[in-house]
Write a structure and sequence with these properties.
2 copies of one chain form a homodimer.
Chain A: H1 2-11, E1 13-15, E2 19-21, E3 29-30, H2 32-46, E4 53-57, H3 62-72, E5 76-79, E6 92-99, E7 104-111, E8 120-128, H4 132-143, E9 147-157, H5 162-167, E10 173-181, E11 188-189
Parallel strand pairs in A: 4-5, 4-8, 8-9, 9-10
Antiparallel strand pairs in A: 1-2, 6-7, 10-11
Helix pairs in contact in A: 2-3
């Protein structure tokens, strides 16, 4: 997505040949107009999939997910990184998600009332890097017996293992911006065949 | 807001004469259509205030805040409950927020790049109870030297101290649903003069 790549180039900052900071428009301050355009692009890509539910994980997945949900006119569910006191152990789906950046493992939780075997779930997240959050959300979809129709991502770090892990499981992944490299603290894009 | 009150009555659950669980449509699963209508109502209320920025706090404030930001065509900023590793101490505004529910105090953080003295800030959050999160966000607006134009809330627990604390500071508060009591685990509304 050309507009997103322009924003990454003009407003993104790269550290340590690996970290892309996009907090001025994507995950701390959010450019609402850009977010709407990104949501429309993801909706267009998945529009024939009869999506019944959008699933993401708190916190920075929530903004793109609610915008996409609003376009599909379906509910959005966000997984929580800790179990709410009002949810009992047998009322939840849960999965372990390891963060390589923070070197911690979180248990993510979704109430089992909100995804069921009839659902066609579209997972939305801001970043795809090592894919651990997405794999955790996929486990939750599987526990619910629901179908996963695909994964929509704003920014993919294609040089990390996430996309490969999803593709080898046959998942339909749409990333709006694919980054081939952050070497020398410079952004190099991977403009793919499925460019949106 | 009639539609929201209906949802609270039909889908909300009350515990311990004090806790209102709305996780089926507001803060775990989110009814995207309801969220858009709530955002439109808040936009209509504050439409003459020349809002330049929407401010909220992760995680459950993000969905209403991005929807309101999209209607105003202004950026949204969400305060983080922990300091990102990419932000240095002299690059941030911060405030202490005590949660009576969880009995913990969090430091909330906003990068000082994203709010400045020219901003007219509208604070959006899902709940107003004791008002501690809102007061923390107000401290951040004050540190930035920005103007606060008002506070937009989805559900207010009017029997707790939040609204009083804001009103005695002269803040313009718009709550879409005001709850007078949860006694006997029953929802009683407070339908006020400023009903939207």
């Amino acid at each position: 997505m050309e507009l997103l790549r322009e924003m990454v180039l003009t407003d993104g900052k790269v550290y340590d040949n690996n970290v892309l900071k996009v907090d001025s428009f994507l995950n701390h301050q959010i450019d609402a107009d850009l977010m709407l355009k990104m949501a429309e692009t993801l909706r267009d890509y998945f529009k024939d999939k009869e999506v019944t539910k959008i699933l993401t994980i708190e916190a920075s997945g929530i903004a793109p997910a609610i915008m996409v949900a609003n376009l599909f006119k379906v509910p959005m569910v966000f997984a929580k990184k800790s179990k709410p006191s009002t949810l009992k152990n047998n009322d939840i789906y849960e999965a372990q998600v390891h963060s390589y950046t923070k070197n911690i493992t979180n248990t993510i939780v979704v109430s089992n009332k909100f995804i069921n075997r009839d659902d066609k779930v579209l997972i939305i997240d801001d970043f795809l890097a090592n894919g651990q959050a997405t794999l955790g959300l996929m486990q939750i979809v599987e526990q619910a017996g629901a179908s996963l129709v695909g994964v929509g991502i704003l920014i993919e770090k294609s040089f990390q293992s996430g996309r490969h892990l999803l593709e080898e499981r046959g998942i339909n992944v749409c990333s709006l911006c694919r980054i081939a490299s952050l070497e020398n603290n410079k952004v190099t894009f991977n403009i793919a065949d499925d460019e949106r």
